[in-house]
Amino acid sequence: xxxxxxxxMGVTTNSQDVRELIPExxxxxxxxxxxxxxxxxxxxxxxxxxxLELPPWSHGDxxxxxxxxxxxxxxxxxxxxxxxxxxxxxGYKQRxxxxxxxxxxxxxxxYEELDKNRDTDVDRxxxxxxxxxxxxxxxxxxxxxxxxxxxxxxLDPISCSMGVKTIDVQRTCxxxxxxxxxxxxxxxxxGGNGTALLFRLIVAPLTKRARRACSAGSVGSAAAxxxxxxxxAASAGSGGLPSxxxxxxxxxxxxxGISRGRPSVDMLEEVERRTAPLPTGVVPNTSKxxxxxxxxxxVAVLSFDNEVFVxxxxxxxxxxxxxxxxxxxxxxxxRLSAHRGRVVRITASSNSRYIVSGAEDTTFVVWSCQxxxxxxxLRVELLFTVYGHEDNPTAVDLSPVLDLVATASRDGVxxxxxxxxxxxxxxxxxxxxxxxxxxxxxxxxYLPNILYASALDHVIHQIGVNGVALxxxxxxxxxxxxxxxxxxxxLVTTKSFTNLNASEESGGTVFFLHSxxxxxxxxxxxxxxxxxxxxxxxxxxxxNPQVIVCGSSEGSLSLLRVEL
Length: 564
Prior knowledge:
about 575 residues, 4-stranded antiparallel beta sheet, Methylamine Dehydrogenase, Chain H, about 15% helix, about 35% strand
Protein backbone atom coordinates (compact mmCIF):
# COMPACT_ATOMS: atom_id res chain seq x y z
CA UNK A 1 0.00 0.00 0.00
CA UNK A 2 1.00 3.59 -0.37
CA UNK A 3 1.26 5.59 2.86
CA UNK A 4 -2.08 6.42 4.46
CA UNK A 5 -1.12 10.10 4.50
CA UNK A 6 -0.88 10.12 0.70
CA UNK A 7 -4.31 8.51 0.44
CA UNK A 8 -5.85 11.28 2.53
CA MET A 9 -4.15 13.98 0.51
CA GLY A 10 -5.26 12.40 -2.76
CA VAL A 11 -8.96 12.16 -1.99
CA THR A 12 -9.09 15.69 -0.54
CA THR A 13 -7.09 17.53 -3.22
CA ASN A 14 -7.58 15.55 -6.44
CA SER A 15 -11.05 15.51 -7.97
CA GLN A 16 -10.09 12.46 -10.06
CA ASP A 17 -9.29 10.41 -6.96
CA VAL A 18 -12.59 8.63 -6.28
CA ARG A 19 -11.34 5.91 -3.95
CA GLU A 20 -13.61 4.88 -1.08
CA LEU A 21 -12.90 3.05 2.15
CA ILE A 22 -13.90 -0.60 2.06
CA PRO A 23 -15.64 -2.21 5.07
CA GLU A 24 -12.54 -4.23 5.98
CA UNK A 25 -10.81 -1.02 7.07
CA UNK A 26 -13.27 -0.83 9.96
CA UNK A 27 -12.97 -4.34 11.39
CA UNK A 28 -10.04 -6.30 9.94
CA UNK A 29 -6.53 -5.34 11.12
CA UNK A 30 -5.02 -8.12 9.01
CA UNK A 31 -5.74 -6.12 5.85
CA UNK A 32 -3.03 -3.66 6.90
CA UNK A 33 -0.32 -6.30 7.24
CA UNK A 34 1.54 -8.35 4.67
CA UNK A 35 1.77 -11.26 7.07
CA UNK A 36 2.53 -13.86 4.40
CA UNK A 37 5.30 -11.72 2.87
CA UNK A 38 3.70 -11.71 -0.57
CA UNK A 39 5.75 -9.88 -3.22
CA UNK A 40 3.40 -7.28 -4.66
CA UNK A 41 6.08 -5.68 -6.79
CA UNK A 42 7.48 -2.16 -6.66
CA UNK A 43 6.21 1.36 -7.19
CA UNK A 44 7.45 3.56 -10.01
CA UNK A 45 10.09 4.93 -7.68
CA UNK A 46 11.43 1.44 -6.99
CA UNK A 47 10.01 1.20 -3.46
CA UNK A 48 8.69 -2.27 -2.62
CA UNK A 49 4.97 -2.69 -1.90
CA UNK A 50 4.50 -4.10 1.59
CA UNK A 51 2.36 -3.49 4.67
CA LEU A 52 0.26 -0.35 4.94
CA GLU A 53 2.17 2.67 6.25
CA LEU A 54 -0.09 3.83 9.08
CA PRO A 55 -0.73 7.41 10.23
CA PRO A 56 1.07 8.69 13.36
CA TRP A 57 -2.07 8.61 15.51
CA SER A 58 -2.19 4.80 15.28
CA HIS A 59 1.36 4.48 16.72
CA GLY A 60 2.24 1.92 14.06
CA ASP A 61 -0.27 -0.58 15.44
CA UNK A 62 -2.77 -1.92 12.86
CA UNK A 63 -5.11 -3.03 15.65
CA UNK A 64 -5.24 0.44 17.13
CA UNK A 65 -5.66 1.86 13.62
CA UNK A 66 -8.74 -0.27 12.94
CA UNK A 67 -10.17 0.44 16.40
CA UNK A 68 -9.80 4.20 15.91
CA UNK A 69 -11.35 3.98 12.45
CA UNK A 70 -14.39 2.15 13.84
CA UNK A 71 -14.54 4.50 16.81
CA UNK A 72 -14.71 7.48 14.47
CA UNK A 73 -17.37 5.79 12.35
CA UNK A 74 -19.53 5.21 15.44
CA UNK A 75 -18.90 8.67 16.92
CA UNK A 76 -21.61 11.21 17.72
CA UNK A 77 -20.19 13.58 15.11
CA UNK A 78 -20.60 11.08 12.28
CA UNK A 79 -24.06 10.16 13.53
CA UNK A 80 -25.12 13.81 13.55
CA UNK A 81 -23.92 14.23 9.95
CA UNK A 82 -25.20 10.93 8.60
CA UNK A 83 -28.41 12.37 7.14
CA UNK A 84 -26.38 14.73 4.91
CA UNK A 85 -24.52 11.76 3.45
CA UNK A 86 -27.81 9.92 2.84
CA UNK A 87 -29.17 12.98 1.02
CA UNK A 88 -26.14 13.00 -1.28
CA UNK A 89 -25.92 9.28 -2.02
CA UNK A 90 -29.51 8.05 -1.87
CA GLY A 91 -31.62 11.17 -1.38
CA TYR A 92 -32.88 14.34 -3.00
CA LYS A 93 -29.39 15.75 -3.63
CA GLN A 94 -28.50 12.88 -5.93
CA ARG A 95 -30.13 14.32 -9.06
CA UNK A 96 -31.48 17.55 -10.49
CA UNK A 97 -30.88 21.10 -9.33
CA UNK A 98 -30.10 20.04 -5.77
CA UNK A 99 -27.31 17.78 -7.04
CA UNK A 100 -25.86 20.62 -9.13
CA UNK A 101 -25.98 23.00 -6.16
CA UNK A 102 -24.25 20.41 -3.97
CA UNK A 103 -21.56 19.70 -6.62
CA UNK A 104 -22.78 16.10 -6.62
CA UNK A 105 -22.94 15.43 -10.38
CA UNK A 106 -21.20 12.43 -11.96
CA UNK A 107 -20.80 10.98 -15.45
CA UNK A 108 -24.16 10.64 -17.17
CA UNK A 109 -23.75 6.93 -17.89
CA UNK A 110 -23.30 6.09 -14.18
CA TYR A 111 -26.93 6.91 -13.36
CA GLU A 112 -29.66 4.29 -13.42
CA GLU A 113 -31.64 4.19 -16.69
CA LEU A 114 -30.12 7.47 -17.86
CA ASP A 115 -27.97 5.84 -20.52
CA LYS A 116 -31.04 4.23 -22.12
CA ASN A 117 -32.71 7.63 -22.65
CA ARG A 118 -29.66 9.18 -24.28
CA ASP A 119 -29.16 8.93 -28.03
CA THR A 120 -25.45 8.41 -28.49
CA ASP A 121 -23.05 6.43 -30.59
CA VAL A 122 -20.68 5.78 -27.70
CA ASP A 123 -19.31 2.26 -27.74
CA ARG A 124 -21.26 0.16 -25.23
CA UNK A 125 -18.17 -1.82 -24.22
CA UNK A 126 -16.40 1.47 -23.50
CA UNK A 127 -19.22 2.44 -21.13
CA UNK A 128 -19.03 -0.91 -19.38
CA UNK A 129 -15.27 -0.57 -18.93
CA UNK A 130 -15.78 2.92 -17.52
CA UNK A 131 -18.40 1.69 -15.05
CA UNK A 132 -16.06 -1.09 -13.96
CA UNK A 133 -13.55 1.61 -13.07
CA UNK A 134 -15.65 4.39 -11.51
CA UNK A 135 -18.73 2.42 -10.46
CA UNK A 136 -22.43 3.24 -10.70
CA UNK A 137 -24.50 5.85 -8.92
CA UNK A 138 -26.86 4.12 -6.43
CA UNK A 139 -30.60 4.01 -6.95
CA UNK A 140 -32.36 7.11 -5.64
CA UNK A 141 -34.43 6.10 -2.61
CA UNK A 142 -35.61 9.43 -1.15
CA UNK A 143 -36.92 12.59 -2.79
CA UNK A 144 -37.03 14.63 0.43
CA UNK A 145 -34.37 15.44 2.98
CA UNK A 146 -33.66 12.63 5.44
CA UNK A 147 -34.43 13.18 9.11
CA UNK A 148 -31.52 13.81 11.45
CA UNK A 149 -30.43 11.04 13.77
CA UNK A 150 -30.95 11.82 17.42
CA UNK A 151 -27.76 11.98 19.48
CA UNK A 152 -27.02 9.38 22.14
CA UNK A 153 -28.08 11.25 25.26
CA UNK A 154 -27.69 8.69 28.06
CA LEU A 155 -25.12 9.47 30.71
CA ASP A 156 -22.10 7.19 30.71
CA PRO A 157 -21.55 5.53 34.12
CA ILE A 158 -17.78 5.94 33.91
CA SER A 159 -18.13 9.73 34.03
CA CYS A 160 -20.79 9.92 36.76
CA SER A 161 -21.24 9.41 40.45
CA MET A 162 -22.55 5.93 41.17
CA GLY A 163 -24.39 4.61 44.19
CA VAL A 164 -25.07 1.09 45.41
CA LYS A 165 -28.31 -0.30 46.76
CA THR A 166 -28.04 -3.64 48.56
CA ILE A 167 -31.06 -5.93 48.48
CA ASP A 168 -31.18 -8.91 50.83
CA VAL A 169 -32.53 -12.13 49.30
CA GLN A 170 -31.05 -14.47 51.91
CA ARG A 171 -34.50 -15.68 52.94
CA THR A 172 -34.80 -17.36 49.56
CA CYS A 173 -31.19 -18.29 48.80
CA UNK A 174 -28.04 -17.94 50.85
CA UNK A 175 -25.85 -17.52 47.76
CA UNK A 176 -26.46 -15.92 44.36
CA UNK A 177 -25.03 -18.09 41.58
CA UNK A 178 -26.02 -15.97 38.57
CA UNK A 179 -27.89 -12.81 37.64
CA UNK A 180 -29.26 -11.91 34.21
CA UNK A 181 -30.77 -8.66 32.93
CA UNK A 182 -33.36 -8.58 30.16
CA UNK A 183 -34.41 -5.86 27.72
CA UNK A 184 -37.87 -5.94 29.32
CA UNK A 185 -36.33 -4.37 32.47
CA UNK A 186 -36.39 -7.56 34.49
CA UNK A 187 -33.62 -9.12 36.54
CA UNK A 188 -33.34 -12.86 37.09
CA UNK A 189 -31.60 -14.25 40.16
CA UNK A 190 -30.47 -17.88 40.31
CA GLY A 191 -29.57 -19.11 43.78
CA GLY A 192 -26.99 -21.65 44.81
CA ASN A 193 -29.81 -24.05 45.72
CA GLY A 194 -31.27 -23.87 42.21
CA THR A 195 -34.11 -21.48 42.91
CA ALA A 196 -34.79 -18.76 40.31
CA LEU A 197 -36.51 -15.44 41.03
CA LEU A 198 -37.62 -12.77 38.56
CA PHE A 199 -37.85 -9.15 39.75
CA ARG A 200 -39.04 -6.03 38.00
CA LEU A 201 -36.79 -3.01 37.58
CA ILE A 202 -37.98 0.58 37.51
CA VAL A 203 -35.68 2.23 35.01
CA ALA A 204 -35.50 6.00 34.57
CA PRO A 205 -32.35 6.66 32.52
CA LEU A 206 -30.48 9.85 33.34
CA THR A 207 -29.51 11.98 30.36
CA LYS A 208 -26.80 14.49 29.58
CA ARG A 209 -29.48 17.13 29.24
CA ALA A 210 -30.70 16.44 32.79
CA ARG A 211 -27.18 16.79 34.17
CA ARG A 212 -26.69 20.08 32.34
CA ALA A 213 -29.96 21.33 33.78
CA CYS A 214 -28.90 20.37 37.30
CA SER A 215 -25.48 21.93 36.83
CA ALA A 216 -27.07 25.15 35.63
CA GLY A 217 -29.14 25.37 38.79
CA SER A 218 -32.48 24.98 37.05
CA VAL A 219 -33.71 22.31 39.39
CA GLY A 220 -35.11 24.62 42.04
CA SER A 221 -35.37 24.65 45.78
CA ALA A 222 -37.48 21.51 45.91
CA ALA A 223 -34.62 19.46 44.51
CA ALA A 224 -32.19 21.12 46.91
CA UNK A 225 -34.40 20.14 49.84
CA UNK A 226 -34.72 16.60 48.55
CA UNK A 227 -30.97 16.32 48.21
CA UNK A 228 -30.60 16.96 51.90
CA UNK A 229 -33.01 14.67 53.68
CA UNK A 230 -34.45 12.00 51.42
CA UNK A 231 -32.00 11.70 48.55
CA UNK A 232 -29.71 8.81 47.87
CA ALA A 233 -26.69 11.11 47.74
CA ALA A 234 -27.38 12.46 51.22
CA SER A 235 -27.97 9.01 52.70
CA ALA A 236 -24.73 7.57 51.31
CA GLY A 237 -22.17 6.80 53.97
CA SER A 238 -18.46 7.21 53.78
CA GLY A 239 -18.17 3.85 52.05
CA GLY A 240 -20.55 4.90 49.28
CA LEU A 241 -23.43 2.63 50.39
CA PRO A 242 -26.82 4.39 50.53
CA SER A 243 -28.98 3.89 53.58
CA UNK A 244 -31.91 1.64 52.70
CA UNK A 245 -34.23 3.32 55.18
CA UNK A 246 -33.84 6.71 53.49
CA UNK A 247 -33.99 5.40 49.93
CA UNK A 248 -36.32 7.47 47.77
CA UNK A 249 -38.35 5.19 45.48
CA UNK A 250 -38.50 6.04 41.81
CA UNK A 251 -41.70 7.01 40.15
CA UNK A 252 -42.96 4.40 37.71
CA UNK A 253 -42.39 4.95 34.02
CA UNK A 254 -39.48 6.32 32.06
CA UNK A 255 -40.27 10.00 32.04
CA UNK A 256 -39.30 11.14 35.49
CA GLY A 257 -38.68 14.70 36.54
CA ILE A 258 -35.20 16.10 36.95
CA SER A 259 -34.07 16.10 40.57
CA ARG A 260 -30.78 15.82 42.36
CA GLY A 261 -30.13 12.51 44.06
CA ARG A 262 -32.49 10.61 41.77
CA PRO A 263 -30.98 7.22 40.84
CA SER A 264 -31.25 5.79 37.36
CA VAL A 265 -32.80 2.49 38.44
CA ASP A 266 -34.53 0.83 41.35
CA MET A 267 -35.92 -2.65 41.91
CA LEU A 268 -39.25 -3.84 43.24
CA GLU A 269 -38.64 -6.52 45.84
CA GLU A 270 -41.85 -8.39 45.04
CA VAL A 271 -41.11 -11.55 43.07
CA GLU A 272 -42.93 -11.72 39.74
CA ARG A 273 -42.09 -15.34 38.88
CA ARG A 274 -40.14 -18.05 40.63
CA THR A 275 -38.89 -21.61 40.39
CA ALA A 276 -38.54 -23.95 43.34
CA PRO A 277 -35.05 -25.09 44.40
CA LEU A 278 -33.57 -28.24 42.93
CA PRO A 279 -34.34 -31.40 44.90
CA THR A 280 -31.65 -32.31 47.39
CA GLY A 281 -29.01 -34.59 45.89
CA VAL A 282 -29.78 -33.87 42.24
CA VAL A 283 -26.65 -31.71 42.07
CA PRO A 284 -23.98 -33.04 44.46
CA ASN A 285 -22.42 -30.32 46.59
CA THR A 286 -18.83 -31.29 45.82
CA SER A 287 -17.44 -27.94 46.94
CA LYS A 288 -19.17 -28.17 50.35
CA UNK A 289 -20.29 -24.56 50.05
CA UNK A 290 -23.07 -23.50 52.39
CA UNK A 291 -24.91 -21.64 49.62
CA UNK A 292 -25.68 -24.76 47.61
CA UNK A 293 -24.14 -26.77 44.81
CA UNK A 294 -25.05 -24.44 41.92
CA UNK A 295 -22.27 -22.07 40.91
CA UNK A 296 -21.93 -19.39 38.26
CA UNK A 297 -19.91 -21.69 36.01
CA UNK A 298 -22.58 -24.41 35.80
CA VAL A 299 -25.67 -22.20 35.45
CA ALA A 300 -26.92 -20.62 32.20
CA VAL A 301 -30.00 -18.56 31.34
CA LEU A 302 -32.06 -18.80 28.13
CA SER A 303 -34.66 -16.18 27.16
CA PHE A 304 -37.21 -16.43 24.34
CA ASP A 305 -39.63 -13.50 24.39
CA ASN A 306 -41.70 -14.11 27.53
CA GLU A 307 -40.33 -17.59 28.19
CA VAL A 308 -37.26 -17.93 30.40
CA PHE A 309 -35.34 -21.14 31.06
CA VAL A 310 -32.48 -21.94 33.44
CA UNK A 311 -29.91 -24.62 32.64
CA UNK A 312 -28.08 -26.42 35.46
CA UNK A 313 -25.01 -28.61 35.19
CA UNK A 314 -23.30 -30.73 37.82
CA UNK A 315 -25.95 -33.45 38.00
CA UNK A 316 -24.84 -36.78 39.42
CA UNK A 317 -25.82 -38.73 36.24
CA UNK A 318 -23.57 -36.66 33.90
CA UNK A 319 -26.51 -34.80 32.35
CA UNK A 320 -27.67 -31.21 32.56
CA UNK A 321 -31.22 -30.01 32.91
CA UNK A 322 -33.09 -27.04 31.43
CA UNK A 323 -35.98 -25.87 33.62
CA UNK A 324 -38.69 -23.32 32.76
CA UNK A 325 -38.82 -20.33 35.07
CA UNK A 326 -42.48 -20.79 35.95
CA UNK A 327 -43.35 -23.97 37.81
CA UNK A 328 -46.81 -23.66 36.20
CA UNK A 329 -45.34 -23.36 32.70
CA UNK A 330 -46.58 -25.61 29.91
CA UNK A 331 -42.96 -26.40 29.09
CA UNK A 332 -41.46 -29.50 30.61
CA UNK A 333 -37.94 -29.95 31.92
CA UNK A 334 -35.38 -31.03 29.36
CA ARG A 335 -32.62 -33.37 30.54
CA LEU A 336 -29.77 -33.71 28.05
CA SER A 337 -27.05 -36.33 27.97
CA ALA A 338 -23.91 -36.39 25.81
CA HIS A 339 -21.03 -36.62 28.31
CA ARG A 340 -19.32 -39.42 30.18
CA GLY A 341 -18.35 -37.16 33.06
CA ARG A 342 -20.07 -34.65 35.30
CA VAL A 343 -20.99 -31.38 33.56
CA VAL A 344 -19.01 -28.64 35.33
CA ARG A 345 -19.20 -25.77 32.82
CA ILE A 346 -22.21 -24.46 30.95
CA THR A 347 -22.97 -21.20 29.16
CA ALA A 348 -25.50 -19.83 26.68
CA SER A 349 -25.18 -17.35 23.82
CA SER A 350 -26.59 -13.85 24.16
CA ASN A 351 -29.43 -14.68 21.74
CA SER A 352 -30.16 -17.98 23.57
CA ARG A 353 -29.88 -19.97 20.34
CA TYR A 354 -26.83 -21.93 21.47
CA ILE A 355 -25.64 -23.53 24.67
CA VAL A 356 -22.28 -25.16 25.42
CA SER A 357 -21.61 -27.74 28.12
CA GLY A 358 -18.22 -28.93 29.35
CA ALA A 359 -17.67 -32.05 31.42
CA GLU A 360 -15.00 -33.87 33.38
CA ASP A 361 -14.49 -36.22 30.41
CA THR A 362 -12.53 -33.24 28.91
CA THR A 363 -15.08 -32.66 26.12
CA PHE A 364 -17.31 -29.73 25.31
CA VAL A 365 -20.64 -30.14 23.50
CA VAL A 366 -22.35 -27.40 21.48
CA TRP A 367 -26.16 -27.48 21.36
CA SER A 368 -28.73 -25.49 19.39
CA CYS A 369 -31.87 -24.28 21.14
CA GLN A 370 -35.13 -23.33 19.48
CA UNK A 371 -38.52 -22.45 20.90
CA UNK A 372 -41.09 -23.66 18.39
CA UNK A 373 -44.41 -21.89 18.18
CA UNK A 374 -47.35 -24.01 19.30
CA UNK A 375 -45.10 -26.59 20.95
CA UNK A 376 -44.77 -27.32 24.64
CA UNK A 377 -41.13 -28.35 24.48
CA LEU A 378 -37.87 -26.53 23.98
CA ARG A 379 -36.13 -28.11 21.01
CA VAL A 380 -32.47 -28.77 21.84
CA GLU A 381 -30.20 -30.54 19.34
CA LEU A 382 -26.56 -31.58 19.55
CA LEU A 383 -24.45 -29.79 16.93
CA PHE A 384 -20.91 -31.02 17.54
CA THR A 385 -18.44 -32.11 20.21
CA VAL A 386 -15.14 -30.38 20.92
CA TYR A 387 -12.28 -32.83 21.42
CA GLY A 388 -8.60 -32.14 22.03
CA HIS A 389 -8.49 -30.93 25.63
CA GLU A 390 -6.43 -33.20 27.87
CA ASP A 391 -7.62 -31.91 31.25
CA ASN A 392 -10.84 -30.86 32.95
CA PRO A 393 -12.70 -27.91 31.41
CA THR A 394 -12.31 -24.61 33.24
CA ALA A 395 -13.95 -21.94 31.05
CA VAL A 396 -16.14 -21.50 27.98
CA ASP A 397 -17.76 -18.68 26.03
CA LEU A 398 -19.33 -18.29 22.61
CA SER A 399 -20.48 -15.62 20.17
CA PRO A 400 -22.87 -16.25 17.26
CA VAL A 401 -21.97 -12.83 15.84
CA LEU A 402 -18.31 -13.81 15.50
CA ASP A 403 -19.12 -17.47 14.73
CA LEU A 404 -16.83 -18.47 17.57
CA VAL A 405 -16.69 -20.92 20.47
CA ALA A 406 -13.84 -20.52 22.97
CA THR A 407 -13.09 -23.45 25.30
CA ALA A 408 -10.35 -23.71 27.93
CA SER A 409 -8.99 -26.41 30.22
CA ARG A 410 -6.89 -26.76 33.35
CA ASP A 411 -3.73 -27.53 31.37
CA GLY A 412 -3.76 -23.97 29.96
CA VAL A 413 -5.05 -24.78 26.46
CA UNK A 414 -7.49 -22.40 24.74
CA UNK A 415 -9.28 -23.63 21.61
CA UNK A 416 -11.27 -21.53 19.16
CA UNK A 417 -13.84 -23.33 17.00
CA UNK A 418 -16.26 -22.13 14.36
CA UNK A 419 -19.81 -22.24 15.69
CA UNK A 420 -21.36 -23.09 12.32
CA UNK A 421 -18.78 -25.44 10.79
CA UNK A 422 -17.28 -26.92 14.02
CA UNK A 423 -13.82 -26.39 12.49
CA UNK A 424 -10.87 -25.75 14.80
CA UNK A 425 -9.61 -22.25 14.01
CA UNK A 426 -6.88 -21.77 16.61
CA UNK A 427 -5.30 -23.63 19.51
CA UNK A 428 -3.36 -21.51 21.99
CA UNK A 429 -1.70 -21.99 25.34
CA UNK A 430 -1.39 -19.76 28.39
CA UNK A 431 1.98 -17.90 28.28
CA UNK A 432 2.95 -19.36 31.67
CA UNK A 433 1.21 -22.71 31.14
CA UNK A 434 -1.24 -21.83 33.93
CA UNK A 435 -4.82 -23.03 33.91
CA UNK A 436 -7.22 -20.72 32.08
CA UNK A 437 -10.09 -20.12 34.51
CA UNK A 438 -12.04 -17.40 32.68
CA UNK A 439 -12.77 -16.60 29.05
CA UNK A 440 -14.73 -13.63 27.70
CA UNK A 441 -15.49 -12.94 24.03
CA UNK A 442 -16.06 -9.24 23.34
CA UNK A 443 -18.23 -9.19 20.24
CA UNK A 444 -19.55 -5.67 20.88
CA UNK A 445 -16.12 -4.05 21.02
CA TYR A 446 -15.27 -1.89 18.02
CA LEU A 447 -12.43 -4.35 17.47
CA PRO A 448 -13.75 -7.73 18.68
CA ASN A 449 -11.31 -9.62 20.88
CA ILE A 450 -11.03 -12.38 23.46
CA LEU A 451 -9.95 -12.10 27.10
CA TYR A 452 -8.74 -14.93 29.28
CA ALA A 453 -7.28 -15.08 32.78
CA SER A 454 -5.91 -17.52 35.32
CA ALA A 455 -6.57 -17.57 39.04
CA LEU A 456 -2.87 -18.30 39.60
CA ASP A 457 -1.41 -15.00 38.39
CA HIS A 458 -4.49 -12.71 38.08
CA VAL A 459 -3.32 -11.38 34.71
CA ILE A 460 -5.85 -10.58 31.99
CA HIS A 461 -4.58 -11.53 28.54
CA GLN A 462 -6.13 -10.11 25.37
CA ILE A 463 -5.96 -11.72 21.93
CA GLY A 464 -7.59 -10.94 18.60
CA VAL A 465 -10.21 -13.24 17.12
CA ASN A 466 -7.44 -14.78 15.00
CA GLY A 467 -5.29 -15.54 18.04
CA VAL A 468 -2.80 -12.66 17.88
CA ALA A 469 -1.66 -11.53 21.35
CA LEU A 470 -2.52 -7.87 21.92
CA UNK A 471 -1.77 -6.97 25.54
CA UNK A 472 -1.77 -8.19 29.13
CA UNK A 473 -2.72 -6.31 32.31
CA UNK A 474 -2.66 -7.28 35.96
CA UNK A 475 -6.07 -7.34 37.61
CA UNK A 476 -6.55 -5.08 40.66
CA UNK A 477 -7.65 -8.07 42.74
CA UNK A 478 -8.83 -11.65 42.58
CA UNK A 479 -11.30 -11.79 39.69
CA UNK A 480 -14.61 -13.26 40.81
CA UNK A 481 -16.68 -12.51 37.68
CA UNK A 482 -16.81 -10.37 34.57
CA UNK A 483 -19.25 -9.47 31.80
CA UNK A 484 -19.62 -7.29 28.71
CA UNK A 485 -21.71 -4.10 28.51
CA UNK A 486 -23.40 -2.25 25.63
CA UNK A 487 -20.65 0.39 25.80
CA UNK A 488 -16.93 0.14 25.10
CA UNK A 489 -15.96 -1.26 28.50
CA UNK A 490 -16.39 -4.44 30.50
CA LEU A 491 -17.23 -5.04 34.15
CA VAL A 492 -14.82 -6.97 36.36
CA THR A 493 -15.69 -7.81 39.97
CA THR A 494 -12.77 -8.46 42.27
CA LYS A 495 -11.88 -9.31 45.83
CA SER A 496 -8.86 -7.85 47.56
CA PHE A 497 -5.64 -9.86 47.39
CA THR A 498 -5.17 -9.55 51.15
CA ASN A 499 -7.51 -9.39 54.14
CA LEU A 500 -5.54 -7.98 57.04
CA ASN A 501 -7.92 -8.91 59.81
CA ALA A 502 -11.45 -10.06 60.44
CA SER A 503 -12.56 -6.60 61.54
CA GLU A 504 -12.02 -5.20 58.05
CA GLU A 505 -15.13 -4.34 56.09
CA SER A 506 -15.79 -7.18 53.69
CA GLY A 507 -16.92 -6.69 50.14
CA GLY A 508 -15.91 -6.52 46.53
CA THR A 509 -15.25 -3.90 43.91
CA VAL A 510 -16.68 -3.47 40.43
CA PHE A 511 -14.10 -2.15 37.98
CA PHE A 512 -14.85 -0.64 34.58
CA LEU A 513 -12.16 -1.67 32.07
CA HIS A 514 -11.87 -0.32 28.54
CA SER A 515 -12.85 -3.12 26.17
CA UNK A 516 -9.84 -2.62 23.88
CA UNK A 517 -7.08 -0.86 25.84
CA UNK A 518 -7.97 -2.63 29.14
CA UNK A 519 -7.33 0.61 31.01
CA UNK A 520 -9.15 1.17 34.31
CA UNK A 521 -11.90 3.76 33.83
CA UNK A 522 -13.85 3.68 37.09
CA UNK A 523 -14.46 1.58 40.17
CA UNK A 524 -17.39 1.16 42.55
CA UNK A 525 -16.96 -0.53 45.96
CA UNK A 526 -19.78 -2.86 47.02
CA UNK A 527 -19.70 -3.40 50.80
CA UNK A 528 -21.01 -6.74 52.08
CA UNK A 529 -22.03 -7.69 55.61
CA UNK A 530 -20.31 -11.06 56.05
CA UNK A 531 -16.57 -11.42 56.40
CA UNK A 532 -15.15 -13.30 53.44
CA UNK A 533 -18.20 -12.67 51.26
CA UNK A 534 -17.53 -11.97 47.59
CA UNK A 535 -19.32 -10.76 44.49
CA UNK A 536 -20.03 -13.99 42.63
CA UNK A 537 -21.58 -12.67 39.41
CA UNK A 538 -22.46 -9.50 37.54
CA UNK A 539 -24.65 -8.45 34.62
CA UNK A 540 -25.32 -5.30 32.60
CA UNK A 541 -28.53 -4.27 30.88
CA UNK A 542 -28.37 -5.15 27.15
CA UNK A 543 -29.16 -1.57 26.05
CA ASN A 544 -28.90 0.70 29.10
CA PRO A 545 -25.36 0.95 30.55
CA GLN A 546 -26.72 2.66 33.68
CA VAL A 547 -28.26 -0.61 34.95
CA ILE A 548 -25.79 -3.02 36.58
CA VAL A 549 -26.58 -5.82 39.02
CA CYS A 550 -24.16 -7.99 41.01
CA GLY A 551 -24.85 -11.05 43.14
CA SER A 552 -22.92 -12.11 46.23
CA SER A 553 -22.02 -15.23 48.16
CA GLU A 554 -23.95 -13.95 51.19
CA GLY A 555 -27.34 -13.90 49.43
CA SER A 556 -27.66 -10.26 48.41
CA LEU A 557 -27.91 -8.18 45.26
CA SER A 558 -25.93 -4.99 44.67
CA LEU A 559 -27.75 -2.61 42.37
CA LEU A 560 -25.35 -0.09 40.83
CA ARG A 561 -26.95 3.03 39.43
CA VAL A 562 -26.01 6.47 38.21
CA GLU A 563 -26.96 9.43 40.38
CA LEU A 564 -27.14 13.12 39.51
